[in-house]
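Backbone-to-sequence.
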């Protein structure tokens, strides 16, 4: 798939088919993710790919994050959107695979920012590669209020949980969320 098409067609998917994702396909998107740039090439990340029972146990913990998130959602969205997101959190839309991206912690704030930016680059590679494979994803940080419990489950208590994404074949075409007027400035042209 053309890169520009992957960028433009990628959406956040919140409904998935139960159909499993072949391991070889997951291997390809993980490989693409790992070719992301990173600050001073530290590659400060870990990817955990969960399916089956570990996926279910992880999602049970992640779903508890909706309690802390709901008041904020109510401030931002209408009732229908709040209901949609709450429903999505319960079982991550039924996606058969969940990927957790964790990055190292750094006591130096500049170092920490570089790790987070590096992890975000990896995350976007992952989402675009999944799009190219015909898979749906949804970048999620709304689970952060359960970070400690999720990291404990992953056996990575000293990491920073960057984000998670469900991965699977989409069961429902998501809406195209419009972009704002371009906040872009061109200087010296
Ligand atoms: C850093 C980040 C965190 C996000 N966290 C969540 C989340 O917790 N739950 C969710 O349903 N969507 C989450 N999203 C998805 C956004 O809602 C989505 O990207 C945005 O509405 C634009 O829609 P699109 O991805 O379909 O273009 C997140 C996206 C980003 C980049």
């Amino acid at each position: 798939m053309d890169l520009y098409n992957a960028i433009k067609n990628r959406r956040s998917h919140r409904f998935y088919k139960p159909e499993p994702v072949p391991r070889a396909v997951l291997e390809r998107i993980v490989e693409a993710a790992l070719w992301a740039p990173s600050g001073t090439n530290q590659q400060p990340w870990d990817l955990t790919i969960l399916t089956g029972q570990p996926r279910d146990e992880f999602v049970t913990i992640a779903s508890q994050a909706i309690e802390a998130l709901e008041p904020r959602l109510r401030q931002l969205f209408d009732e229908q959107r709040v209901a949609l997101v709450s429903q999505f959190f319960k079982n991550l839309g039924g996606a058969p695979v969940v990927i957790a991206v964790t990055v190292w912690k750094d006591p130096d704030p500049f170092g920490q920012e570089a790790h987070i930016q590096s992890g975000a680059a990896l995350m976007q590679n992952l989402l675009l590669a999944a799009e190219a494979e015909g898979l749906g994803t949804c970048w999620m940080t709304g689970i952060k209020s359960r970070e400690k419990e999720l990291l404990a489950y992953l056996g990575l208590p000293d990491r920073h949980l960057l984000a998670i994404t469900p991965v699977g074949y989409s069961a429902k075409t998501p809406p195209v969320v419009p972009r704002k007027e371009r906040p872009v400035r061109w200087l010296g042209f």
